[in-house]
Target: M1 family metallopeptidase
Amino acid sequence: MKRIVLFILALLPLVSQAQGVWEQKFEQLGTTLPTPNQYRTASGAPGVDYWQQKVDYVIDVELTDANHEINGSEVITYTNNSPDQLAYLWVQLDQNMRAKDSDTPLTEGTAMKSEMNGKSLQSLTNDFGYDGGFKIKYVKDAQDAGLKYTINKTMMRVDLPKPLKTGESVTFKIAWSYIVQDRLNMGGRSGYEYFPKDDNYLYTIAQWFPRLAVYDDVEGWQNKQFLGQGEFALEFGDYQVNLTVPSDFMVAATGTLQNPKEALTPTQLKRFEKAKKTFDAPVVIVTQEEATENEKSRATSKKTWSYKADNVRDFAFATSRKFIWDAQAVKLGDKTPLAMSYYPKEGNPLWGDESTKAVVNTLITYSKHTVEYPYPVAISVHTAAIGMEYPMICFNYGRPDENGEFSDRLKWGMIGVIIHEVGHNFFPMIINSDERQWTWMDEGLNTFVQSLTEKAFYPEKPLRRGEAKLIVDYMKGDKMFIRPIMTNSEQIIQFGNNAYGKPAAALSVLRETIMGPELFDYAFKTYSERWAFKHPSPADFFRTMEDASAVDLDWFWKGWFYSTDHVDVSLDKVTWYKMGVPEEETVEDKPKKGKKDKKVSEGTATDGKVLDFAEEAEVFEFKNTEDKNYFEFMNRVDDAAVKLANENKNFYELTFSNKGGLVTPLIVEWTYEDGSSETEYIPAEIWRMNENEVKKVFVKDKKVVNIVIDPNEETADTNTEDNVFPRVEKPSDFDEFKSGSN
Model:
């Protein structure tokens, strides 16, 4: 008999799923995540044998303004810290996405329109009259002997004379050139912008040198082709870079300027030194008047700017004779990095007023929530129609009109993109995830902390992303055009929503509603500190957030990151109960035995399509506990005391249905007859026995007159009309059909 009872009890959760398929939304991720090992632990921390490669570069490069050509040579030292012998090395040649044999235009869908302008037609034909891609001049070993190499589109394999053993280093050399593209015409993450009024160029240069691909314990070689959407996976190393440009150009770059006395005028150098000690406002190092005068110059001589950057994963620079330059020191613990901005006069007055200030605010907030900013500078460079990031430097849009006028929308957009791109110093430039594979790990996490920065320093700025309610329209859209967050970068359909907006909204829900700021912030900072200057995977993030908080979040990752479900909870029914009393004990304000009409008393739909509270409560009869209910226990419940404590209580049985599929906490706001209100938070685990429908009874001292589910739109519920009670139900299509047929 006991076995039968237990069997029936075990079936109850399955029986309760009769109205929907049991999808195991609360099962552990288990084998979905990679098996922990000595390199990456089950806690999400690096293991005792964690390793990563190191790549150091010494680069000499020259930019020729007349023909927009980059000529460079580099000496690369590759250190093999892996347990494996390497017979060859893979080098990324990202500029080859613009070569004539590139796969990128072949893999992009195109369509004709009834009308096409010159710009769109040129993009369709890909006929720019441009010879793109790297021209590799040589690949040699340290003794200048040629090394065999094979180019496969955007990847180059360099074959080593002998396998590189664990702990060994190899040094080799590459020389190359390429033509910088017109970014405003051809697109791209780097390139030049032309200013026809003063016949000048502004160069933002990235992906400009052959760079070693990542070799790690998760993927081996990360050698996915660069098609343009998925970004980059790179190793940390030390850089020494000598940049030669026309002598009237200013240069902004990753790292610390090594020869300021040669590169700067005495006046500029004096201002630069002053900026290092100025914390309250930017110091202008090159003024607008000086930059405007410099625009007229056409130097035939050259100047070399030397930079050094330690423990970075990439190097980028910007250069032009148009640059205004300002800088301000930021106090972060025992460090005082310089926040700096470079911008043409076309960016003013907006850039002079806001850019460096936004850099400062970003460093402060991100250092609080992740790791203290470790680098000596953080630079924001202005050029049109872009937002792109590299270690210590980023390129950002935001240009007033010719009269210097700008809208609030442009101002907030510019501030937002600066915060976002400077924030990328943390994700992925320090916490170094694989952008080629998992866009959300840098874009989504960064967008979330961007929203924290905006809330802290720009409360009047309309948030674009980073709150639950801002992702609702996307999540309730056609699932044909939605992919799970855990989708490779090159296969995402709605890139901004999928990789930026939804992960940021998910983390907001996690912080504000599920974990609470204290637990979340500690776990998020733990993840950042564990994986600073390392290569985290999604599993490392998921596991660390649970490990450092003691909150089981597998259900959350499954729903938000691995599925396209959305939140849509409906409050289907509210039934009000009170305790009944025997006829001889009737009190005027207490309900008598006997039940009212069930359709009305339960507050279900009536002919008028109104869901409202019943005029009188349903009655339940109180009974003393029988002996058989105590089993082997000797102690007894004080039935009289329980009855007395509850005889004037109001019992509200609420029925919730999960229409969207994504399990979520229930946030219930109660409004009482006396005008007071309160809010209760029910954990998402309420759905663990039935993923489709749950009932829960709430006991209240006061009479309830209104109920709202998710009153502050914290969960991304896509339909709030069925979150309120009482409410007027909209007629269904079938109801309208019946009405019309009469």
